[in-house]
Design goal:
Low-confidence stretches: 493-504
Number of helices: 24
Number of strands: 30
Distance between the termini: 29 Å
Strand content: 15-25%
Helix content: 25-40%
Radius of gyration: 31 Å
Protein name: Acetate--CoA ligase family protein
Mean pLDDT: 93
InterPro entries: ATP-grasp, ATP_grasp_subdomain_1, CoA-bd, Ligase_CoA_dom, NAD(P)-bd_dom_sf, Succ_CoA_lig_flav_dom, Succinyl-CoA_synth-like
Pfam family, one: Ligase_CoA_2
Keywords: ATP-binding, Ligase, Nucleotide-binding
Strand order of the largest sheet: 19-18-21-20-22-23-24
GO molecular function: ligase activity
Length: 711
């Protein structure tokens, strides 16, 4: 895709020389031409006679637009006239537009009037780009025209982007079917639209000083796409991309932090109730096998271990220093830790940026960088890494080992993670607080967990991202191997962004987060309990190999709700082929219902559940099963749970390994039945049809992102 970067640079430098941050429409058209973005035929007139001549040359009807670097919103200034069909109208229109512009802003510099071929056929869409404070350059696509900010049917991707990502944007808006042509309407040229999206992404990727691009409307027909209006804003001081460590540098530090040979506790205490005492007790009682060095200038021994006045006095090497001292003492102690060669500083103390002490936090970061120390925190509860029996925290210990790593930006959320893990018996590899994220953030942790054989799933609570692009790159690497689940707090808050353009006004923070997290392949959880349940369940479920989902239910009402839940979660209910339909009918009563859902009715014995479930598992055309159970004395809950666990295990042994989720309705006995099913790798929940299907939907979202589904 060839671009004339020199032509763009010439336009941008001319604007910069004049101190302008907004390009005129003709300048915008030059940039579009340089990047192969189609615009209507046009010219700039400086008199009514020139306007008439241009209209004759271009062909009627035409549009007239004021050209002024000082008038950004042309319509508000009365600076746009549309559909001028004869030359007299063009002559009069020129004078009218100039008069309106001068009335709107008497001080405005007016370069002339743009005479543009009238484009009005096809679908109106918007294509643009904004500079997001988290993700940098972001491309937008959606419905255009006058209703764009009312309907807000728009989607975002990181720029630059691939042709496949651009095509995906066309399908990602609610009005996607409109562009395909409905009720006899003409379909839009998808290739032309995707090409224009890709070119806008390339433009802003090549020129960081372009703050916003707004092509609205773009008219899309069956044989092309044309940007009828172009608006480009510049950034006088473009943001510099954050510096990033290499993957190897990150892993060097993270491996020493998560697998330390020695841990020092700065501020260790023998007094119960002190944070330094709690950290020491957790390290000792948790079974950590490395060296533990308490640091306290007023003690010679703490909890049976020799204490040292400073980390500098420790005789051996130290990988991790846990700070349990007030914020004002941190800088000096960190200097000592840095000179000692510590890899990680675990900053439990509060009193930094979260309380307004930004300078103090920056001082800590600068000291750490000088010595090559990675800082976790400050303002955190610490961290757990169960493979090393490492409990470096002042909170309650946790030692149930498993494959789920969880991180949180909030201490309270961290403790909710801990309680949920304990109640459900969910084994974890790590629980990590990131707090203020002065240094170590989610990118670093994903880089470690990606290659950590003890971790097979990561769930993250976050309030913001320091480096959105760094996160996306790390997440995409990990998603190819393991699920990444994210709970993004603040999804209802709109960014305080000036509505300088349609594209800018549409770029609410959460919408950008939502689309780009999806672009990264991340599974986004709507709430805290959802995140925890996804983390608990996804590692237990085999990945589906295709999209065909079959519901088998003992209750018609549950079947309807389960069907609704499948649709809500983007799952495809299989169209049962005739031979499989006949096979199901052989096992269900005449008053039951085959099809999908397969309704075996409530009064059936265990054998009916067993036969239909086994059939669904054995048929390779079925890729996932959703089971709806209704409590009866004929098939009690534990009988149902034991037979499902047995049948699933037997079929998995034969290679029929597919996800199975179950919804159990009944008396309280169904709770024990769900526990038994979970313990045997079948995801089951009592009293809900929505939760098991939501978990299955989350597994499917990851499997699609990881490219695991056939077709």
């Amino acid at each position: 895709m060839a671009h004339d970067q020199a032509a763009v640079r010439e336009v941008l430098e001319a604007a910069r020389a004049e101190g302008r941050t907004a390009l005129t429409a003709p300048e915008g058209r030059k940039i579009c031409q340089a990047y192969g973005i189609s615009t209507p035929g046009e010219g700039v007139a400086t008199s009514a006679d020139e306007a008439v001549s241009l209209a004759e040359e271009i062909g009627l009807p035409v549009v007239l637009k004021i050209v002024s670097p000082d008038i950004l919103h042309k319509t508000e200034a009365g600076g746009v006239l549309v559909g001028l069909a004869d030359l007299d109208a063009v002559r009069a229109g020129y004078d009218r537009i100039v008069a309106s512009a001068r009335s709107y802003d008497p001080e405005a510099s007016i370069d002339g009037v743009q005479v543009q071929a009238m484009v009005g056929a096809g679908h109106e869409v918007i294509i643009g780009a904004v500079t997001d404070q988290t993700f940098g350059k972001v491309v937008a696509f959606g419905l255009g025209g006058v209703l764009v900010e009312v309907l807000k049917d728009v989607t975002f991707r990181l720029a630059p982007l691939s042709g496949d990502d651009a095509l995906g944007m066309l399908d990602d808006i609610r009005a996607a079917d409109v562009l395909r042509g409905v009720r006899g309407a003409e379909a839009a040229d998808r290739g032309a639209l995707a090409n224009m999206i890709e070119r806008v992404g390339a433009l802003v990727g090549d020129f960081p000083e372009i703050a916003e691009v707004d092509l609205n409307p773009v008219f899309a027909t069956s044989d092309g796409a044309t940007a009828a209006d172009v608006r480009i804003l510049l950034d006088a001081d473009p943001a510099i991309a954050p510096a990033r460590l290499s993957r190897e540098e990150i892993l060097t530090g993270m491996n020493r932090i998560f697998k330390p040979r020695a841990v020092a506790v700065i501020g260790a205490s023998g007094e119960t109730g002190k944070i330094g005492n709690s950290v020491m007790r957790n390290l000792i009682n948790g079974g950590y096998r490395g060296h533990i060095y308490p640091i306290n200038p007023k003690a010679s021994e703490i909890l049976g271990l020799p204490a040292y006045p400073s980390i500098a006095d420790v005789p051996g090497e130290v990988d991790v220093a846990v700070f349990a001292i007030p914020a004002k003492f941190v800088p000096a102690a960190l200097e000592d830790a840095g000179r000692k060669g510590v890899a990680g500083a675990i900053m439990i103390p509060s009193g930094f940026a979260e309380t307004g002490n930004v300078e103090g936090q920056q001082e800590v970061v600068e000291i750490a960088r000088k010595h090559g120390v990675r800082v976790l925190g400050p303002n955190i509860y610490g961290y757990y890494y169960t493979p090393e029996n490492l409990c470096a925290t002042f909170c309650t210990p946790y030692d149930v080992k498993g494959g789920v790593a969880l991180t949180s930006q909030s201490g309270g959320i961290g403790m909710a993670i801990l309680g949920f893990s304990r109640t459900t018996g969910m084994g974890v590899s790590a629980i990590v607080g990131v707090g203020n994220k002065a240094d170590v953030d989610e990118d670093d942790l994903l880089t470690f967990f990606e290659q950590d054989d003890n971790t097979n799933c990561v769930a993250m609570h976050l309030e913001d991202l320091k480096d959105g692009r760094g996160f996306v790159e790390a997440a995409q690497r990990m998603v190819a191997k393991k699920p990444v689940i994210v709970l993004k707090a603040g999804r209802t808050a709109m960014g305080a962004r000036a509505a300088g353009s349609h594209t800018g006004a549409l770029a609410g923070d959460d919408k950008v987060y939502d689309d780009i997290l999806r672009q990264a392949g991340v599974v986004r959880a709507p709430g805290l309990n959802d995140m925890l349940e996804y983390a608990r369940a996804l590692p237990l479920m085999p990945a589906p190999k295709g999209e065909n989902v079959v519901i088998i239910t003992g209750a018609g009402g549950s079947g309807v709700l389960l069907s609704d839940a499948c649709v809500d979660n983007g799952l495809t209910l299989m169209e049962i082929p005739p031979d499989l339909d006949e096979a199901f009918r052989a096992y269900i009563p005449p008053f039951g219902a085959a099809g999908n859902p397969v309704d075996i009715t409530g009064g059936e014995p265990p054998s009916t559940y067993e036969n239909t479930i086994r059939l669904g598992l054995a048929d390779p055309r079925v890729h996932a099963l959703v089971i709806g159970y209704w409590h009866t004395i004929v098939t009690p809950p534990m009988v149902f749970a034991e037979l499902v666990a047995r049948v699933v295990a037997e079929e998995r042994a034969k290679g029929n390994d597919k996800p199975v989720v179950a919804s159990l309705a009944g008396d309280t006995e169904v709770e024990q039945a769900c526990d038994h099913l979970f313990a045997n790798g079948v995801i089951a929940y009592p009293y809900t049809t929505e939760r098991p299907v939501a978990v299955l939907g989350a597994k499917y979202r990851w499997a699609r992102a990881a490219g695991l589904l056939r077709g």
